[in-house]
Amino acid sequence: MKIYIGNTGTLRHHKVMREHNWGNLHLANAFRMPKRGISWVLDNGAYSNWIHKKPFDDTAFRESLIKIEKCISIPDFIVCPDIVTGGYDSLKFSLKWLNEIPAGYPVYLAVQDGMQPDVISQYIELFDGLFIGGSLGWKLKTAADWIKLAHKYNKKAHIGKVGTFKRLVWAKNIGADSIDSSTFVQARKGKEFGRIHAALSQTALY
């Protein structure tokens, strides 16, 4: 299972990411040029806007699409713009934005509270994978079903905002292909950071 952590400028974190094949998650509204040798994904920033009670920053997302053309590597995937907890309004929003993302980049559809796998199966071939977003309770309840759907169509499934180590192990056990978390960046003390690496290694997460 691939692990992506929030973007960081810390050299220590870059070293760890290279050693363990972790990646960076870059927010569209705080985009930094990816570092050489570190894989990365582009998050559209909708969740960050939602947390701060702001509308989706479409300007920042469009600007990030221009910036990635100058990057030394392409993203592992781009999260298509979505509406957090928005149900099928989010699906309509994503389908509208899909044509604005340049060809050649893998694009994931963010599934949200209220969506059902049998409906999304009608659209899944338009995307390269699923990004399991939404509220925490809905995510914990439905993630396994979304992973099963993605794998049925030979797509990958990513779970967003997997904050704790317990939930990280849960994500691995239900078959997630990748997750993102800021917990590892927040663990700033060397010993604490080391314990996380050791625990991850023991559970064979990568």
Point out poorly predicted stretches: none
CATH superfamily: Phosphoenolpyruvate-binding domains
Q: What is the helix/strand order?
A: EHEEHHEHEHEHEHEHH
What is the rounded distance between the termini? 5 Å
| Strands, count | 8
In CATH, what is the class? Alpha Beta
Oligomeric state = single chain
Give the strand order of the largest sheet, numbering strands 1, 2, ... along the chain.
3-2-1-8-7-6-5-4
* Whole-number tally of structural domains: 1
Average residue pLDDT: 88
Nearest-angstrom radius of gyration?
Answer: 16 Å
Walk me through the structure:
The structure is a single chain. The chain is of the alpha/beta class. The protein has one domain: Phosphoenolpyruvate-binding domains (TIM Barrel, Alpha-Beta Barrel). It has nine helices and eight strands. An eight-stranded parallel beta sheet has the order 3-2-1-8-7-6-5-4. The longest helix has 17 residues, at 136-152. The chain is globular. It starts with a strand and ends with a helix.
